[in-house]
Amino acid sequence: MAFDKLVDTLNGFRKAYTNALGKSIKDNNLVATGRLNTSVSLPKQPKVKIFGGIYNMAITMEDYGLDLDEGTKPQGKRPNNFSFAKNYGDIYEWLSNPTIRDKIGGFKGNSDTEKWSQSKHEGLAFVISRNLANYGLRPRNWIDPYTEPITRAVPSEIEEAIADDVALTMEQLKKFIESQG
Fold first, then answer.
1. pLDDT tens digits for the chain (181 residues)?
2. Any bridge partners for residue 54, and if so which?
3. What is the largest CA-CA distance in the chain?
C-alpha cells in the first residue's frame, strides 16, 4: 500500500521547487529563449515514483541550467584559429533565436538583426564559444538561494507525513482485526 500522505507531501515539494526555480530564473534575468524556464515548470517534471518501498521525487531541467548555476571552468587558452569548441553548434543555434538576436542587437549599433550575414552569425558564435572555452562562465548561483528554505522543511514534513500514514495504516489494521474477531 502506498503512503498517500507521503506522496502528497512529495508532490507538494515538487510544486514548491518548480515555483521557486521559475521565480529565480525571472528574478536573476536568466530568461533568454524560455527553454530553461519551461524545463523547470511543473508539467515538465516527472511524477513521484514508487519502487517497492522507495519513493523517488526528481526535478529536471535543461543541462545548461547547472552550468549557469555553478559556472564552468576554462578549457585553457586557445589561439584565435582553434578548431571550434564543442559548444559552438549550440551557441550558433542559440543565436538563431529571434529573442536572442533582438537582445544582442547588431554589431556597431546596427540593431537590424534580420540582416545578419552568415559570416557575422558564425563570427559571433565563434567569439562567444572561444571566450567560454578560454575564460569559462561565472557562476550565477540561482538555484540554492531559492530552494534552500524548501530543502530545510523537507525532513520534518516527510517525517510528519510518514507518521500520519503509519497511524492511518495502524487504524485500518486495527479495524480489520476487530472485524475478523
1. 568 889 999 999 999 999 999 999 999 999 888 899 999 999 999 999 888 888 899 999 998 899 999 998 888 766 555 555 677 888 888 888 877 877 776 554 455 555 678 888 888 888 888 888 888 899 999 999 999 999 999 999 999 998 988 888 888 888 888 888 7
2. 51
3. 88
Q: What is the pTM of this model?
A: 0.78
Residue type, 147: T
Q: Which amino acid is at 128?
A: I
Burial of 1 (0-12, 13-18, 19+ CB in 10 A): exposed
Separation CA 178–CA 181 (nearest Å) = 5
Helix orientation angle between 118-135 and 88-95, rounded to the nearest 10 degrees: 130
Q: Which residues pair with 49 in a beta bridge?
A: 56
